[in-house]
Amino acid sequence: MNLIKLRYFIHIGYHGTKYSGWQKHPGVLNVQEVLETCISRVLKKPVTIVGCGRTDAQVHASQFFFHMDIEKEWKFDLFFRLNKLLPADIALFDIIKMEGLPHARFDAIERTYDYFIHTYKDPFLNGFSSYYPEKNLDLEKMKAAVALLTQYNDYRGFCKSPDRNDHTICHINYAGLFAHQNGDKFRFQITANRFLGKMVRIIMGRLLDIGRGKLSVDQFEYYLINKETPSIITPAYPQGLYLSKVTYPYLNLQPGTTFITMLQNNVDGWHNL
After folding, report:
1. Helices 199-212/139-148 angle, 10° precision
2. Fewer CB within 10 Å, N side or C side of the chain?
3. In this predicted model, what pLDDT tens digit does every residue of 6-38 receive, in sequence order?
4. Is 56 a catalytic residue?
5. From 56, 114, 122, 138, active-site residue
């Protein structure tokens, strides 16, 4: 006898510093396994979850979705119990009962990442933004490189292991570079239908090289045109990266945390370069 599955989308956020990424791997602390363990404990039966994507070790998600299938609805406050049991760096925002069997990963049509940099030592930004003690970055050249991102769709040259993917096509819908008015903090934001492994961090690393004068805008574009993976790739630090928005055709929620909004809209203000 086949039991009818009830599918739920769970809207969460997490601070990734302690974790070796989202995906479950033996022998390392990961977000997926922590959630599966807590949910299974509360529901008193094994539960497997499917995430909307993957994040690297120490990368954060201010918005993330996963789905789970349940045979019978619970009769208690699951939201309260899970948030009480989960560690402080993982939070549930919403539990959403879905019609049919939509897929948290394959149904997502758009994802947005934000990458934050501060150029001065600040213990209160440590772990929330990446510290690069840079002076006199060439922001105009960095801006010119960012403007190229929406003009190309093959990002093989910005993926560390491109052959692990069926293809390296990504449709970038938006890319923008922002500077704090004090000139000591920067934010890179990028939105696309999909991203390759470490792609955002690799792009950010290249943008920093352009700002330092170690890479020209033409060289940056060369990798977009020729789809060539460099022999040496140095991704930017993971601590400044956030998966900040995931959109579905049938679900478009704002992140459940205001922290990312505070970083994006600091009281002193950002301006688009």
Report:
1. 140
2. N
3. 999 999 999 999 999 999 988 899 999 999 999
4. yes
5. 56
